[in-house]
Amino acid sequence: MKHSLQLRLSQHLTLTPQLQLSIRLLQLSTLELNQEIEKFLQDNPLLEREDGIRDEPSSAAPQPGTPEHPTSGAADSGAGETEDGADGENGADPEDSASERLAQDYTQGGTRSDNDEAEYPQLAAEAQTLREHLIWQLSLTQLAERDQRVVTLLIDSLDDDGYLHQDLDELAALLPPELEIGTDELHVALRHLQNLEPVGVGARNPAECLQLQLAALPAATPFRAQALDTVKHHLEVLAARDFARLKKLLRCSDDELRGVQHLIVGLNPRPGSSFFSGDTRYVIPDVIVKKAKGAWLAALNPDAMPRLRINRLYADILQRNRGTGQQLATQLQEARWLIKNVQQRFDTILRVSQAIVERQRHFFEHGEVAMRPLVLREIAETLDLHESTVSRVTTQKFMLTPRGIFELKYFFGSHVTTDSGGAASSTAIRALIKQMVGAENAKKPLSDSQLSEILGQQGIIVARRTVAKYRESMQILPMSLRKSI
Predict the structure, then answer these.
(1) Which of 185, 216, 321, 448 is most enclosed, with most CB atoms within 10 A?
(2) What's the CATH number for 130-204?
(3) Same fold for the domain at 130-204 and the one at 415-482?
(4) Domain segments of the chain: what residues?
């Protein structure tokens, strides 16, 4: 076999570092973008924020390592010294001046100045957990130290809702034998735990939780006895809303059954949920939509746009020393790429948002029932973008409208054929189903077949299983569970 060299010309797509950065920034949410920018700011000295930075005239040139634009009253280390070395005009000691300024920050009565609030922000106090709340109550009881430790053991076994799902026999078997804690002692400790606040904590199932809360009510509470009987023996019948059977079991009238249901529904089946604080996630809208001169317009949210710029101090040093500092030159190029890609990201978001607003203007006027079907391909062809680019732009990007905050993905939906040959958006159909369920007779709720027939009368052809899928997506109960007395 003979070896030879051949020269060929071919074309292939190469993702440059700048293009890779652009794609990565485009798919990030606003919160993730700020986190990414913070990493760049820490690693790249040639990149800086211009938020809150003011250009102040200064006779002294900034020194390396100091802020490029000092605030008013701040200068370099030699600005406050006279030629003979005296500090200031009166030769005041800098420490004394600092002490005087500190004393001026506090007036009589210990009042803090306005600037002090910015330096020391007020932080929210950490919420008390369910375990801490129960341990605090336990410390106020007259129980012996061993009994308190056994109750603490049960407290540590509770879930976030305040339930004890672990069987006491299994828990006793798992404990070390040298502790000599038996099942009977755990049952006694459980009774002590169930006497603590919130009422219902330490229950092993929802029925026991409701029983504990009903038992804690005054004996004169109306329908308390029937409610206890229902919770102990007929809770599944009540959950299935079989009111006819429940009336026979309780031997009560419609009014009495209505009172029993009202009393039980007013209880809290998750007594520990008020102490559980999940991670709060705040949504920062990328786009704000307003109506101006009869037209709906989209504009970028200035609070979501990071303001970046090149640090002129280091850029000037690099320009004066060309040919040296290859690392600084690379960081300068990376900083320029980042600023350009961030600007391009928001420009693309604005273009896509404005295209969505133009096609969904009826939604902004009339609500969800006026939503028209829209797919990513339609926006991509209009703006001459790739469909994957539109998908990245509409994911985790939010739009603030007079009707609320929506993810850009919300305005896209499949279509359903109508009698006239047109198409209706799935979002509009969900809104119609929600309206019909809200206006139905509670004693005779509409079935999925009836909802499908009503939609057909309006010219929207929807199968019963499609109605059921839309209803479940909106967490609307089926007909049997929506029925009331």
Answers:
(1) 448
(2) 1.10.10.1330
(3) yes
(4) 130-204, 207-275, 287-411, 415-482
Helix (H, G, I), strand (E, B) or coil at 70: coil
Give pLDDT, residue 324. 63
**pLDDT of the residue at 342:** 92
Spatial separation of the C-alpha atoms in residues 274 and 270, rounded to whole Å: 8
Among 48, 66, 46, smallest CA distance to 307 is for 48
Question: Which of 298, 334, 297, 294 shows the shortest CA–CA distance to 314?
Answer: 334
Residues with Cβ within 8 Å of 169's Cβ and at least 6 positions away in sequence, in order, are 183
Tell me how many degrees the CA angle 119-120-124 measures, rounded to the nearest 5.
145
Q: To the nearest 10°, the Cα dihedral for 322, 325, 326, 329?
A: -70
Question: Within 76-182, where are the H helices?
Answer: 94-104, 114-119, 130-139, 145-155, 168-174
* Regions of the chain with pLDDT less than 50: 52-114, 116-118
Segment 268-296, tens digit of pLDDT: 999 988 887 655 667 889 999 999 988 99
Residue whose entry in the numeric block shows the structure tokens 């031997």: 251
For domain 415-482, give the fold.
Answer: Arc Repressor Mutant, subunit A (1.10.10)
Q: How far apart are the first and last CA of the chain?
A: 91
Q: Kindly report the backbone phi and psi dihedral angles of residue 151, in degrees, each rounded to the nearest multiple of 5, phi listed first.
A: -65, -40
For residue 370, the 8-state DSSP code is G
